[in-house]
Write the structure tokens for this entry.
Amino acid sequence: MSDDPIAAYLTMLDRSLRGRPNRDRVLVETEDHLRESADRLERSGMAPAAAAREAVSRMGDAEPLGRAAGGRVAAAAVLSLGWLAAIGLLAAAAAVRGPGQDGPSPGFPVLLVVGALAAGVVSLLAAAAVWSWSSAVATADAVRRRGMAAFAAAAAFGLVALAVHVGKHQNGGSRTLREQRALFCLAVAALVLLVSLAWMELNARAERSRNVPRP
Amino acid sequence: MRSEVLKGHLDLLVLSVLHNAPAHGYAVIQRLAEQSDGAFDLPEGTVYPALYRLERTGLLTSDETVVDGRRRRIYRLTPAGELALGDRIGEWEQFARSIARTLAAGT
């Protein structure tokens, strides 16, 4: 346990911020507040140790402050699921039987690898969206932007899953035709992601221009 | 003043003290205390959830700067915040008049 009440308070706050967005921001802001408060109390004649204790006392409990930074999020779980899906698809690509009478066509492992890469990218995007969405200090524009990211991730993930399903299980048509359909699904997923990223970037630029301080 | 009474109006008060004068969290609390002659004396940590909430809804924006070697976050009203402040002051004045009329009629 630190002898410095401010350091001890920040340790408690850090604990309550674990797994939350904006951890660094809240810690830095709180430390600045406490140090300034203690400095002022010292200048008014209080001993340094007493000033630090008083600054912490005036701040109130660390736990509610930690909660105010935003809800705990399942970003890690989203990321883990996406990467598990990616690893599973890669493993399937490695294990798939070679071309033959009953086996898949030569293009099928490539399709699985593409699906694995897409699953990895989509899960990264989805995790970032989930993480940011729960932030208590995100602006309304940012929340809309992250909503779009979440939608894009969900849509792309669905299309990737559809592509894998179509490529593997759909009855009717030749293997080549099924693979063409699956690749079409993947192409649409990539298009959804690209359009969403462009929209988010334009939205972010508009937000920055609106928030330029007025003279 | 009881803090639970004040908390219901904290957003309006924070917007008001930041009107035309950007400030960091500590200065917001100091202004609240000074402008109310010490009546608004909340635990200092309670102002930060209000600042985060107002920023999230787009009424405030913030930038980080360095002062005396310490990183400091300065909050300012956005144009939407300026509009919201005007609206909320109007609502508050109407509310206060209604309360005053009701109390006057009952005494």
Notes: The radius of gyration of chain B is 15 Å. The longest strand of chain B covers residues 60-67.
